[in-house]
Amino acid sequence: MKKKIKNIIGPTLFSLVIVGMIIGIYFLGIVGLFDILGVQYQSSWSLLLFVVSIFILGLPIDLVSGAVADLSVKKLRGKTSVFVVRFLFGFATNWIAIYIVDVFMSSVDLALGTKLVVSLVLTLFEMVVGVGEINSKDK
């Protein structure tokens, strides 16, 4: 019985730590980006809620968008074309998630240009982090 509990608790805690680290990286990145862009927000908690909401809303949107992007690039030959298509899908996904969260949260208000810049930076970050994953699938 104790072994079963360890087999459940161990992977669960590991998963929570990994998800926490990912959200922390997103949070710190967005805080820094918002400071650079001069975005005003009511509190750190509202900004944390904003980042977590983008992350949670972005997951299902990203799953659908990623599947469509994978289908779209199957027939493409050049690496540049594949990169551009994946970038456009990723950018659209991030922009949709940021737009929806911004509409529903009054404590963080972003201008259109700021939404576009944040979407661009998040997409570039995701593409850089995911490069090894994409290349390993191609081999």
What does it look like?
The chain has 139 residues and is mostly helical. It contains 5 helices and no strands. Helix 1 packs across helix 2, helix 2 runs antiparallel to helix 3 and helix 3 crosses helix 4 (112-129). The radius of gyration is 18 Å and the shape is flat.
Draw up the topology in text.
Blueprint: H1 2-37, H2 44-73, H3 79-104, H4 112-129, H5 131-138
Helix pairs in contact: 1-2, 2-3, 3-4
* Element string (H = helix, E = strand): HHHHH
Structural class: mainly alpha
Amount of beta strand: under 5%
Mean pLDDT over the residues: 84
Radius of gyration: 18 Å
Could you give the distance between the termini? 43 Å
What characterizes the major β-sheet? Answer: none
Summarize the structure.
The protein has helices at 2-37, 44-73, 79-104, 112-129, 131-138. The protein is an all-alpha fold.
Supply database-style keywords:
single chain, 139 residues, mainly alpha, disordered C terminus
